[in-house]
Design goal:
Number of helices: 32
Number of strands: 2
Shape: elongated
Strand order of the largest sheet: 1-2
Strand content: under 5%
Distance between the termini: 70 Å
Number of domains: 3
Oligomer: single chain
Amino acid sequence: MTLAVFALCGFAMALAAPFLPIWRFRPGGWLAAGVPAASFVYFLTLVPRIGDDEVVTASWNWIPTLDVAFALRVDGLALLMALLVSGMGALVVLYSGAYLQGKPGLGRFMAYLFGFMGSMLGLVLAADLITLFVFWELTSITSFLLISFETEKPEARKAATQALLVTGGGGLALLGGFALIGIEAGTYDIAEITAGGGGLAESSRYLPILVLVLAGAFTKSAQFPFHFWLPGAMAAPTPVSAYLHSATMVKAGVYLLARLHPALGDTTEWTVALTAFGSVTMVLGAFIAVHQTDLKLILAYSTVAALGLLVLLLGIGTDLAVKGAMVFLLAHALYKGTLFLAAGSIDHGTGTRELGKLGGLARAMPITAAALAVGAVSLAGFGPVLAFIGKEALIEAVLHFGQAGEAAVIGAVVTGGTLFAVAAGMLGRLLIGAVRAPHHPHESPWEMLAGPVLLSVLSVVFALAPALISGGLVAPAAAAVAGEQVKVKLALWHGVNTALLLSLLSLAIAAAVLWNAPRLRPVTARIADAAGPLRPGELYYTSLLNLNRVARQQTRLLQHGYLRLYLAITLATAVALTVAAIAVRGGVELDNSYGDIAFYEVIIAGVIIAGAGLAIRASDRLTAVVALGAVGFGVALVYAFFGAPDLALTQFLVETLTVLLFVLVFYRLPRLANVSPVPTRVRDAALSLAAGALMTVLVLASITQTSDHTLTAYFAETSKPVAFGRNVVNVILVDFRSLDTLGEIIVLAVAALGVVAMLKLRREDSP
C-alpha cells in the first residue's frame, strides 16, 4: 500500500492543483515540490533492499477473467527510473513555480505536470502489461496537455497534436503487441514473461510481436523515422522540455525495450532492428544539432542522438552494452536536465534563446553559466563527469560487438565528435566575449538555479565516486535488463586504451567540424533541401493533408443527406458481415422442432405480416399508420401470450400513443406519392427480405445454443432481498442497471429540450 501511495500521489495533486490557492504566492512551488520529493525519498530508502536482490510489489485484482491485475513492482530498472522521475519532478515543480510565477493558468499547468508525473511513475513501476499500457497512454495525453499549455500559440497546438498523433499511433501498435504477448505467453505479468516462460523468441508470432512493440517504443523515444515530433515539442514551456524530453517521457520507449529485453532480445531480428535504427537516429540527431541556433532545438536534437545511442546499446545486448546503457541513462538525465533548465534560466534572464544574440554570460549569469558548462562538458562526453564513463562504456560495447561492429564504432565516434562540436560551439557563443543579450541579463531566482546546480554537481560527484551508484543503482538495473547478474565496476580512468584513443579521435572530428562549419552549412542546407519531401517530418504533414482530403471526399460520398440510403448501407453492411461470419464458421445449426403451434399464434403472425404488407402498399398515410399500429399491437400480443405481461402493457401504451401522434402529424401532410423508381424499390425489397431472413435464421440458431443462466439466476434470487422488488424486469431497469436507465432518460430529456427549443424558435420567427 505504501508503494501505491508514493507512486500515485501525483494523481491526487493533479486533481487538487487547480483549486489550491498556493500558486498565488512564490512559496507555492516550494510546497508542491514536497510531494515528488517525498516520493524520491521513499524510493531512495528502497535502494539497499533492491541492491540485495529484493523486489517490492503491490497488486490488486483488476480483470480476473482475463488474468489482468493492477500491479506495481520495484526492481533495479524500475527503481532507477522511479528515482529519475520523482527526483527530476521535484526540481521541475520547484523551477516551474518561479518560471511561471504570475502567469495565468499556473494551477492548471501544475495539474498537468503532476498528472504526467503520476502516469510516468505508474508506467515504470507497472508489473502487468495492461497496467503499463494504461499509464503509457496517460503519458501521451498529459504530455499533449503540457505541450499545448500556451494554447494561444498556434505552434504549441500544432506541436502537441503532432506529438499525440505520433505517440498515440505507436500506442495502438503497442496494444496489439501486448495482446499477442498475452496470447502467446498465457499471462500479462511482466515478471513471468521476462522469466522466459512464454518462449516468445521461439514463437511463430515473435516477428509481429517485435514489430508492434518496436513501433510503440520507437514513436515514444523519437527514433528515426519518428524523431521529428521531439524538436517540435520544444514549443512547450522550458520546464516541460526539461522534464518530459530529458529524463522521463522520451525514455519510456527505451525503458520498454529494456524491460522486455529478456523476453524479446538476443535474437537476430532484435539486434539488427535496434542497432540499425539506433545508429541512424544517433548520427542523424547529432548531425542536425550542429546546425541549430536555438538553444532548445540544439538540446532537442542532441537528445534524439542520445536516445539513438541507448537503443543501439540495447540492440547489442551484451553485459557491457547493458551496463553502458544504464550508466548513460542516468548520465543523460542529469546533464540534459541541467542544460534544459539552464536554457530556461538564460531565456528568463535575457529574453532569448538564440545563440547569435547572446554572449558573455559567464560574467552576467555566473551560476547559470557554471551549470551550463558542466552540462556542455557532459554533452561532449569529456572531463570528470558521469557522461564520460557512459561514453567509455559505449565505445567498449561497440568494440566487442561482433555483428557490424566496425560500422557501430564509426557511428559512435562520429556522433561523439559531432556532439563535442555542438557543446564547444554552444559554450563559445554563450559564455565567452562581450556581454550580449536583447535585455539586460540577470541571474534567475534560486528556485530556477537549484535544479541545474544540483544536477551538474551530481554529474561530477558520481564520476569522481562511481561507487555511489554502481552497486545500488546501476548493477540492479543492468541485472533486470540482462535477466542475470551483471558485473558492474565503474571508474573515471581506465588508463590509455582503445576506447580512450577513439575518444581522442572524436576530438579531432569535433575540431574539423568546428573549423569547417562555415563551409559545411551550405552543403548540408542543399542536402536538406534535396531531401525535402522525403524528410519524415514533411512526410507526416503530407500524410496528414492527404488524410484530410480523403476524409472530405469520403464525407461528401457517404454523408449525402438521404436517410433511405443510410439505412440501406447500414443494413447491407450488417447482413454481409453476419453472413460472412456464418460462412467462416461453416454454417449454423437450426432448430426445426417447432412443437405444437396454437391457432392464435398463427392468427397473430398473420396479422403482423398483413399489417407490414399493408403499410408498404398503402396509398395514404392514415392507412399506413393504422397498419403499423396493427403490427405493434400484434407484437404486444406475442409478449402477453409468452409470459411478459409488463412488456405487453408497455407496448400497448406506446403503440396507442404512437398511432395518435402519427395521425395528428400526418393529417397535415400531403398524400403519398410513388416517387421511387422500380430498381430502387426492387433493391429495397431485396434488402428487407435478406435482413428479415437473416434475423429468422439467427433466432432459430440461438435456440440451439446453450445459454449461461448465471446472471439470470442472480437477478431472480437477489431482486427481492437486495432491491426489495418482485418484478425482476423493473428491478433490473431501476436498480441493477439504473445508470443505463438514467442515461436513456437523459437522452430523451435532451431530445425533448431540443424539440421545445425548435418550436420556440419557430414561434419567434412567425410574423
